[in-house]
Amino acid sequence: MSSVLASVVVFFTVLHLTQVTATIRSCVQCDDAVSSGCPATLTSTPCPDSSYDQCTASRTTLYDANGAMVRTVVTRGCSRSSSVRNDECTYSTPADATLNGYFEYTCTRSCTTNGCNTFTPQGTAPGPLYCCIDRSGNNRYRCPIDQGFCYSTVVYRSSASQTGVTHNEVQGYELVSEERGCRATALTSQCSDTQLDGSNAVVTTCQETCQTHGCNDGWPHRPRCLQCGSIPSTVASGSDPCLYNPEEASACSRPYHQYCVYIDQGRSGRLTSNLADNRGGYSRSIVRGCSATDIGTQCRDIQNVDTTFQQCNKTCTADGCNHGMGGSSRPATSLVVLFVTSLLTYVTQSTFSY
């Protein structure tokens, strides 16, 4: 019996010794409404318990019905993370019924280290960051005060062998996961490939952070591209919006689209101008979009019976970089013979189809 009792005593002794003491936050705690001098108080004291993990300061100014300032009250104390404020200001009606027509303007700001709430909020600090939680861009999450970055990560599988595919297709593509949200530290913008043993299967992981509202709605470490194609009716009228005024760049449809491109085609010698030359029944046409492969930046000649056409390509990797048109030089010129109508159909329908 004594041995059992001894074991129980030892058990509770060990349990007591291994208990972790909760950290108590210390904050400046004062209230002008109770005692004057709060704006000058800088000494912090422990919060009531460990659930108070933030320090907060607020400044409330009372105005009369004419907008004249009546008084200002500064309050500092402890708060919980669910009530974090980043120097935000709100209007309210005083609880005192005798102050009919009066209004209050309150600015509140929180912080996360001991004794940090020595400031007086003025509503001038940057507001909270809002980050996307999915690719639509419509669902945004308000980040905590200590998380100043939006992030996006994506993992996808593909085949290492990509011969004989179009610019916008990758063999064996499968999206494994994607994640978006807020974080406290920046990530290196990059993509890395891991080839699986015993096969040509590749796993690609991409990541990126940014610091503007909703900036993480696209694919990480991939450019946003101008995406449009010439429409025959607008080409004929000489008002082709894709040639002259394309819509702003947007995220590509697949995470493997690492290039922005355009293909501009028309009569040879005409692509150095900004005109949609339609003389002689030969139309100029341009396609802008996303590409999984580098199609080069060069011009070449295309012979169709007795007429020579020119095709100029551009490949780039920055947001919206596939603007402009044609080419003033020919880094790589070749002469090929094929039917131009078929080529335009291929470029528009196959190369930039998803």
Top keywords for this entry?
36% strand, CD59, 3 domains, 354 residues, elongated, five-stranded antiparallel beta sheet, 4 helices, mainly beta, single chain, six-stranded mixed beta sheet, disordered C terminus
In short:
This protein is mainly beta.
Write the layout of secondary structure elements.
Elements: H1 2-18, E1 26-28, E2 30-31, E3 44-46, E4 54-63, E5 69-79, E6 88-92, E7 103-111, E8 130-132, E9 140-142, E10 149-159, E11 174-183, E12 190-195, E13 201-210, E14 224-225, E15 228-229, H2 232-237, H3 241-244, E16 250-251, E17 259-267, E18 285-291, E19 298-304, E20 307-316, E21 335-337, H4 340-351
Parallel strand pairs: 19-21
Antiparallel strand pairs: 1-3, 2-5, 4-5, 4-7, 6-7, 8-9, 10-11, 10-13, 12-13, 14-16, 15-18, 17-18, 17-20, 19-20
Keywords: Disulfide bond, Signal
Signal peptide: 1-22
Written account of the structure:
With 354 residues, the protein is mainly beta. It folds into three domains: 26-111, CD59; 130-210, CD59 (Ribbon), CATH 2.10.60; 224-351, no CATH class. The protein is 11% helix and 36% strand. It is built from four helices and 21 strands. The chain has helices at 2-18, 232-237, 241-244, 340-351; strands at residues 26-28, 30-31, 44-46, 54-63, 69-79, 88-92, 103-111, 130-132, 140-142, 149-159, 174-183, 190-195, 201-210, 224-225, 228-229, 250-251, 259-267, 285-291, 298-304, 307-316, 335-337. The protein has a six-stranded mixed sheet with strand order 15-18-17-20-19-21, with helices on one face. A five-stranded antiparallel sheet has the order 2-5-4-7-6, with no helix packed on it. Strands 11-10-13-12 form a four-stranded antiparallel sheet, with no helix packed on it. Strand 19 and strand 20 (307-316) form a beta hairpin. The chain is elongated, with a radius of gyration of 32 Å. It starts with a helix and ends with a helix. The model is unreliable at 8-18 and 328-354 (pLDDT under 50). Residues 1-22 form the signal peptide. Keywords: Disulfide bond, Signal.
